[in-house]
Please model this.
Amino acid sequence: MRTYEISKKKITETSSSCFGHLYGSENKITENQINRYISILERFESFSNKPEPQFFSSPGRTEIGGNHTDHNHGKVLAGAVNLDNVAVAAINNSDTVRIESSGYQPFSVSLSNLSPVSEEKNTSASLVRGIASRLKELGYNIGGFDAVIDSNVPKGSGLSSSASFEVLIGTIFNHLFNNGTIDPTQIALIGQYAENVYFGKPCGLMDQIACACGGLVTIDFANPLDPEVRKIVFDFLKSGFALIITDTGGSHDNLTQEYASVFNEMKSVAEFLGVNTLRETNLEKTLEAIPAMRNKTGDRALLRAIHFYNDNERVAKQVKALEHNDFNSFLTLVTESGYSSYMLNQNIYTFNDRHEQSVALGLVISELLLKGSGAWRVHGGGFAGTIQAFVPENLTDNYINSMKSIFGEKSCYKLFIREAGAVKIDI
Model:
């Protein structure tokens, strides 16, 4: 009990140095995080009798450039954000991982069986088992631990709550059993493996890398097993613009076919041209083959392929603009990406329900509110859910209030890019 009291005191005493780079320096935000961390520690005290627990944080992520480019081995631009999964964890000297997470039933995973369990498919337990299995397969140490987790990354928001959770679990294993020696990109790859093989969901690697590495990163998936990850030095907080994510509503349920159609149609164009992915060919060859290809692939597949080529090149231009501190050009490219997703990639609304077009409505309202300044685009997978906007500070209140009046009081998130990826927090 004394250990926990000391830890609570340390949370308050070290909050300015621990929390500023994770959540910002506003007094109200710092106070909220102090209360949040103390609450998580108190929950851990009730959940586990293990002493000297450690604190961990894994951020959500925002996709800034490259919409549906990663699964064709393309380029993306992404950033970690100031919403995160936080864990208090301690080794429990057993072969069982025990987790209590806000809003969910507690669960445990025995590490004596690291094979996929069919009943666990699509559950958090499957991710924990898959991460442990892959770590052991790669020669890393694993062991049982107790953890209490709290997340303020909204589920279904397009901010990658699942990738944040995967990277958090990998980071706990990394620090509790491997002295923090595992590279963040390796942790991201392990999280993707668990989601693909154990959870049962095909996914790219952008989300996990952005969460694991932190900051603003550009990722080139030319070699998906060894992606090139490069940090971009740019301070968004000094740009005079706010990064705002708006959840326009609409369910992500039953959208698996829609997401798969983007991948499958791009792949059909690549295969017609004799390659596995669009990254292995180019726009010129595709345009030359259109007359022979239309009846085979369909027109929408061709449009989506053209989107890939253009958005893939656009990422490099966005990176160049940021590195040269040319924020106006960057904003123009963001909006161009938004138009491309709308007209070519066509992931703005589902074709199964043409009456539900909340994403399209959010984009149009953003254009009306921000035309001539700022930028707007679909965020993430699309078809339902979130949009992204870069809003000038003098228009931020009006933009947020207008979007909330349409999509609900809790629809808007004002974010910033945080430099820290998934980390152990020294409190």
About this structure: The first helix runs from residue 2 to 13.
